[in-house]
Every structure is written in structure tokens, then in C-alpha cells.
Write a structure and sequence with these properties.
152 residues; alpha/beta; 5 strands; 43% helix; globular
Length: 152
């Protein structure tokens, strides 16, 4: 038995154009791709963007107990502009899905690893672009799940 409480977790890879989403099994062992959400850049400042509304609906639908968001730390471990944007997004998401917690985790190289794994399976070009965000979300969530298991 792990120290991780039982329940589905969602993994989120926040991009400028798309948001990849993965989910774990209730035991926190395996992350699988779920879907890709289009990033809503047109919402009025006081409105909730449709991507946040969709993520909130997924939290409810899958009865998620936590959302794990990949934080794009640079190779030196610093938080650059991309990390600051993701932190702001995660804060906004946390406000929409409260009381479900949002956890940030280092996602260094997740998209690179996901792209490489897809290419190894023969998924390239447009087909790869369509699923790479989900695959990156799987990498983020699986790494986080594995790290939680190693801590116990």
C-alpha cells in the first residue's frame, strides 16, 4: 500500500495553444491519455475561459481528488516566463476547481520525451501534434505518481 490517498488524479500539460490531459487509475499506479483541450485566449478578463470550464468538468466527471500541473522549469532549474505563465494558470484553475487541490510538478523535458516515444511508435507529423499534449500530460502525471510511490 502506498502513502498516496486513493483517487483519480488528472495530469495537465499547459501549452500556449492546447492543454493535454491525462488521468490516473484510482490506485495511482498508471497514467493514461484522456484528451486535448483547446486553450481559450478570447475570454474577457472577468470571464472564466472555456478551457478552465472544461478542466473543471473533467474534475467532476472523473471525481478527481487532485490535479497535477506540469511546471516548465528550465534545464538549470530556474523558473522563466513560461513557468510564471503556468503558475498563473494553475492558480486560476485552483480557484475554479476548489476545494480540489492543484499541485505543480517539474515537467522538464516531458514534451521532448513524449514526442520521442510517439516517434518510436511510428506516430509522426500531424498525428503526433494531435496527441503529443496528451502524451506529455501522461509523462507529467506518471513521473509524479512514481515519485509519490518512491517517497513511501
Amino acid at each position: 500500500m502506498t502513502g498516496l490517498s486513493r483517487g483519480v488524479r488528472l495530469g495537465v500539460d499547459v501549452g500556449q495553444v492546447r492543454i493535454g490531459v491525462a488521468r490516473s487509475d484510482p490506485h495511482g499506479v498508471l497514467a493514461t491519455p484522456l484528451l486535448t483541450v483547446a486553450r481559450d485566449r478570447t475570454a474577457a478578463p472577468e470571464a472564466t475561459p472555456t478551457d478552465l470550464v472544461e478542466l473543471a468538468a473533467l474534475v467532476v466527471e472523473h471525481e478527481a481528488v487532485e490535479v497535477v500541473v506540469g511546471l516548465p522549469v528550465d534545464l538549470a532549474g530556474r523558473h522563466g516566463p513560461a513557468a510564471m505563465q503556468v503558475k498563473a494558470y494553475a492558480d486560476r484553475l485552483a480557484g475554479v476547481i476548489a476545494p480540489v487541490p492543484v499541485t505543480l510538478t517539474d515537467e522538464r523535458m516531458s514534451t521532448v520525451v513524449a514526442s520521442r516515444r510517439l516517434a518510436e511508435r511510428g506516430v509522426r507529423g500531424k498525428r503526433q501534434r494531435a496527441v503529443v499534449d496528451q502524451a506529455a500530460a501522461v509523462e507529467i502525471l506518471q513521473s509524479w505518481l512514481d515519485a509519490q510511490r518512491r517517497r513511501t
